[in-house]
Each structure stands twice: as C-alpha cells, then as structure tokens.
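hey so i finally got around to running both of the ones u sent me last week. sorry it took forever, my laptop kept dying halfway thru and i had to restart like 3 times lol. anyway pasting them below in the order u listed, first the sequence line then the structure token line for each. didnt double check formatting much so if smth looks off just lmk and ill redo it

first one:
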Amino acid sequence: VAELQVTDGDVTTKLLVALENQTCTSAVMAGRSLMSTAIRWDGWRRELKRLHKSRKELKSHQEVLDGVLPSDRMIPVMVLVIHFGQEAWTGLPRFTDTLACPPPLKPMLADCPSNVISFYNLSNNELEKIQEGATRAVAKSIRFVDDMDRLCDEMKKDQSFRKLLEEGPDEALDVITIATGLDMQALKKDKEKDMVKKVSKFEEHFINKGKVLGREEERAKIALKFIQNWRRRNIPESQILQDLQADFELDAATARQYMDAQPVNA
C-alpha cells in the first residue's frame, strides 16, 4: 500500500493505493477490494478515535460511539489489480454486479470497482503508448514473461529498463523479480553501465536456472519489508496482521509466522 498525493487544480489530497497481483480471474475481486477498503476505514476510525479521545474532543454520545467528528474525512483507498495471466480477465467490474438483486436497488448498496490492469493482454502498440519509465518496464516484463528472447531484446532497446536500473523505484524491481524470477536488485547493484552487458548476464542467469525459481522466497522478503514499514508508521500489530492477510492472501497462521520472523525493533 502506497500513500500518494493527487492534485486537482488548486486542491491536493492524499490517496492510498493498494496493489493486488493476480495470475487468473477472481470472480470476487471487487468484493475483496471492498473488504480491503473497509479494513483500512476501520483502522483509520480507530486511530482517530484514540486521537480525539486523548484531546477530549468527543462531546456528544454519538461522537463518543463513532470516534469521529462530522468534519473528519477519510483518506480514499484505490485498489489496483495487476493481472498477468495468459487469459482475458472476465471478472465483473463492480461488487454490485455480483449480487442477485434488482437494478434499482444497486445504488443504495455498498459498492467498489475492480480496477484491473491486464498487462499480459496489452497489444504491442498499447505497451509502447505507456510513458517511458518503471511502469512500461514492468508491463513489458509481465507481457513477455513467457518469451525470454523477446524480453531480453526489449531490455536492450527500451530505455525504460535502463532508467529503472539507474533510478528505481525498488518496488518496480521487486515486481519484475517476482514475475520473471530474475534478480533485478542484483542488476541494479552491478557496477557495469552498459545495458547490453547487463542483459547478457540476465540471459546467462536464465539459461543456467532453466526455470523460474524463488517466487515464494521473494514474496516472503516483500512481506517482511511490509511489516517493517508498517511498524515504523506505528500501525497497531493487530492491524498489521489483518493487512498482511488481506494484501498477501495469507492464512492467519502464516501471517503470524511472518510477524514473528520480523523483530519489532528491526
């Protein structure tokens, strides 16, 4: 989850963007997005309640019950689904589309969109229209993950990969590492400046490996980094555990193992 700033004219607001990675269509993705948003809303409400209570700002019975004031505004949450499967995404776009109810009733129901970006299904022209940089490098890595010759060729000729290795961000490198099994962080640390030489190392690595390895290991590394960042922001341990399960699709026992594996003061 990343906190971004969104500007519209003279107004700048905060936006939380949560990322979901999918290899195949999820029929309940919009519902999961709604649940993820509700979890963050409840965490926000609890934090505000503690703050208002410490300042003795809750006056009425309803304000004490809610924990928020009428002037409080929640940071909006946007869930982006990155689909890198080999078949078209067929999930319904909104949560209310999955409900068996009369259409006139839908506007009165809680809803959430399923914001899907299917890189695998983008055409070559659509890929080239993406602004040069980290996003295009990630998109091409996912699009050509099953064609290493094509991917290595794109790495050599597309300046997006050179910029990514020189400037980051590390999160984009992590996504490519998970998608391809190739260690982008290692390439970034490489002292060689010639991109062709770097890609040659990629090709040699892939041939020697013979297959994509280490996805679960990389996933664990990112989960531990997630826990560390959340603790630095003083997010309650119970909330971190909930977010860990929701964002990484872990069961409670596995999430707890990750929490225990990452020391509190790390």
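and the second one:
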Amino acid sequence: MMLGIVDWSWRLDGWIIVVGVLCAMSSALLGTFLVLRRMSLLGDAISHAVLPGLAAAFLISSSRSSWWMFVGAVVVGVLTALLSDFIHRRGRVDEGASMGVVFTTLFAAGLVMIVMAADQVDLDPGCVLYGAIEQTPLDMWTVSVSDQVSWRMPRVVWILSAVAAMNAAFVIVFFKELKISTFDPDLAGSSGLSPAAIHYMLMTLVAITAVASFECVGNILVVAMLVVPPATAYLLTERLGILILLACAIGTISAIAGHLAAVELPTWFGYRSTTTAGMMAVATGASFASAFLFAPRNGVAPRLARRWWLSWSILADDVLSLLYRIEERPGKPRNVSSIGRRGSQTAGEADAIDWIAETLLTSRWATTWTLRFHAWRGNVTRPLDGQLPQLTDSGRTDARSLVRSHRLWEQYLVTRGDASEKSIHDIAHRLEHFTDSKLAAELDSQTDSPETDPHGSPIPKPDPGEDFSSK
C-alpha cells in the first residue's frame, strides 16, 4: 500500500490517512487545553469510561447502530466528567484520584456488560479497545448535494469532519475565554466569565471527540492523540496560538507517518503489516521523544549543551583571572616551582597545566583545551616545561575586567549588603562572570570608587575604552 514501494490505493490508504488526520486534529484542538489545565488524565478517563455507554446502547437497542452507540457513549462520557469534578470538589479528593476512581469503575462495569451481552449482540471487545481504522473505508456514506453532485466518503470521515469543525469553531469563538480560564480562573470569574461553563463545554466536546475517534483508533489509543501532540508542542513553544497549530501539525504528521510505518516497517522483518492505530500512537511517542531530546529551548541535549558551554566559559574566565592574580604577586613568578603547589607532591613533580587544573579544581583535559583556546585567541602564551602561560595584552585586558568585577562585588557585598568577609568570595565569583562594564561602573559608584577590596587587594582601574560612568 505504500507509495513508491507497493501499489498505493486511495480507496484504502488514502481514506485511512484522512481518518487518522481528522482524529489527530480534532483531538489536538481540545487536548491542548487538557494539557495546559493539567487534566490530561481526563481524556484517558473519558475514553475508557464510554465503554458502559456502548454496552448499554447495545443492550437497549439490540443493534450496533451508530446513532445509539454515539448517544450512549457521549452520555457516559459527559457523566464521567461531571462525576470526577463532583468527587474532586465535594469529596475533597485529589483531582487525579477522582478521575481514577470514576473511569476505572465505569470501565470495569462496561467490560462486565460486554461479557453479558456477548451472546446476544455481535460485539468485538478488541475493536472497541484497539479500533479498526483499516476497515473504515468499507463503510461508505453518500451525500447528494444535487441531482448531479454527490459525495461518497467513509462514514467515519463524515463524523470526524463534523467533530473537527465543531472543535475548531469552539476554540476560535471561545479562544479568549479558554485562555483566561485556563491560566487564571479567578481573573475569569471576576471578569464576568464562567470558568465552570467553559470547563463543562470543554469536557462535553472531549467526550464527543473521544467517542467519535475511538471507533478508528480505539478508546485506549485515542488518549495518545489527545495528549501527546499537545505535550510535544508544549516543549517547542509557550505561545498558545502557535502551540495549538503545532499540536495539530504534529498529530497530522504522526497520523501519516504511522500508517506508512505500519505498512512498510514490518516488511523489513518479514511480516506483512501491523496495526495502523498502534503505529500512529507510536509515531506520536517518537515525536515527543524527539522534542524531549532536541527541542531548542527545553530539550535535554540543548540544555546539556548550554550547561556545558556555561561551565566551560566560566573555566575560561577563571584561567585568565588566575594568571592575572599570579602576575600581581611580587616578582611575577613564571614557573610552578616559584609559586608552590598544594598537596603531597613537590612543585617539581607537576607542570603548569597540572597546577592550574588542581588550583581551579577541574580536570587536566579541560584545562589543556581551555589554554589552547586562549592561545588560539591570542590571550595567553603556550605553557612549556613547567613554565606558566603568560597573559598577552588582550588577555590581560579581559582578566583585569574580571578581577575588577570580582573585587567590586566583594566591596559592594560588604558595604551595601552587610555580608561577612568570609562569605563574599564565592558570591562574587558567581557574579563576576555576568557583569559587564556598565554594571561594574555602577558598582564602582555605589561603593565610592574604592582602591582596595575588603581583603586589601587592589581593585584594577578600568581601561579607558570601558569606563562607562553610571547614569
């Protein structure tokens, strides 16, 4: 069925993808607000709890009529939302616990009812649980617009199209109300809006969407479409409008990729195919995993990279500051032996890189590459035979600025912050890396331009090019 690999059939593959896309979009529109309201479990609760509604419809009508199924499932879905909210508010039970109580009870009752009805009604529990999206193109509806024009599409496509349009209209018309009641219910109430009314409208549409969707993806897998695309989008943006559009796009891409993967991937291992609904859910999980790992702002890999870069930048500053402080010492010592070395080894047993690494409490590898970077930038000379690297003019300028910021912060913390001299070094060390020339000038003004810091060390004067007076 896959384009370019086996024969593509629009009558089968095309309609399956359309159904998956409509399901994903209608679910993502509402699922975004479930995720933002921290009510993701409610989609799971409703999609499970509609089972007794289906069974009751079968027992009452003795028919698998879509109308009876839809009404029964929607009634129980709305009842699930109402009961969960009632137990949470009146019983003072945690919201997640109240949902768990309601949906597990109703789901179990639905399973019992299905077993009772199994001999009388042709009901497939597997279809209810896992969906039958591959069979949706077999149930076609024809709608005649005129004598010459008629549209023939799968029944599920008609239903999901109506649900998607209804959800889109709800989000567009009540966007402001949804936004305010989601992020600040108290403000919504004081502004004359009714957060409860918006809440129950949202829950009703979630129930309708779950009922309309689980026929194709199952009442278990519909949760993936309700929760995972919005959760993925939330890792990529914090703007509500863009988040909704991204959630719909991610759901759409996952639906398409899921069907293609269901048809193609099993052939790599000698199988014919696998369940499309399941692969669509897997595709949503893969999209979330990708965003979780590589999202520019919230992804694990970029955060680790930014943390590593910050740590390395601080080390690069510390190396320059250390060499500057050494130059301040009388006689400007040039080798490790003339400075001394902490620890059990004698000075001659370690070269300059080892001494710098030990002094700054870092690794020899990090120190080596930091010195090579500074040498490449022309900030220091290369260390040779135990000789310490020497600051160049550009390196000395940067180092002087860092040391000046550090000592100004120490002076400020003592004179303005009433901090003790014993505790100011670590605080000043953290702040010096984020202090620019204007802030340093402000610190200098606030401390009355001191000559020395609280420890008696001289505070370097700024270079003429960076002497910004405070305003």
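quick thing i noticed on the 2nd:
Residues 1-6, 342-349, 467-471 have pLDDT under 50 and may be disordered.
anyway thats it, ttyl
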